[in-house]
């Protein structure tokens, strides 16, 4: 028998995935990070960190803010991929990648799918960023397959 909290979390994650698939927007999907990722911002002068038991905001007044959800035990934070792309400068992406909580998956599936994720030219222009860099960082240095 599973706990009610676990069942609720599964239902919520399935709902987020379903909505992202229907909208064709993978930016809605959440990534999980070790809560230590926030420490960097505590050490910055002028930063503001506001937190409740379940959500938090990291703000650098006049520059940017980032909202995160906090796990029940406080050991993890999570946020949509879109927020990383839209609200953080590219030079901070690697810091977040370093704190990513990796979800295990089959090594066989990784070998089978060597294609890079599709990148929309329109989205690249609209956002003014090269999303491929973050995707490659998250995919641990994706290398395209070589042709014989």
Written overview of the protein:
By secondary structure, this protein is an alpha+beta fold. The protein has one domain. It is built from seven helices and five strands. The chain has a five-stranded antiparallel β-sheet with strand order 1-5-4-3-2. It is globular, with a radius of gyration of 17 Å.
- The arrangement of helices and strands along the chain is HEHEEEEHHHHH
Q: Any idea what the shape is?
A: globular
Question: What is the count of helical runs?
Answer: 7
- Overall structural domain count: 1
Spatially, the strands of the biggest sheet line up as 1-5-4-3-2
Helix content: 40-55%
Termini separation comes to 52 Å
Please tell me how large the radius of gyration is.
Answer: 17 Å
Give the uncertain stretches in residue-range form: none
Determine the mean pLDDT: 79
**What's the story with the biggest beta sheet?**
5 strands, antiparallel
Provide the β-strand percentage band: 15-25%
Q: In terms of structural class, how would the helical and strand content be classed?
A: alpha+beta
Instruction: Please give the oligomerization state of what you see.
Output: single chain
Strand segment count: 5
Task: Present the secondary structure layout.
Blueprint: H1 4-23, E1 30-34, H2 39-42, E2 48-51, E3 55-60, E4 64-70, E5 76-80, H3 81-87, H4 90-98, H5 107-112, H6 121-127, H7 131-138
Antiparallel strand pairs: 1-5, 2-3, 3-4, 4-5
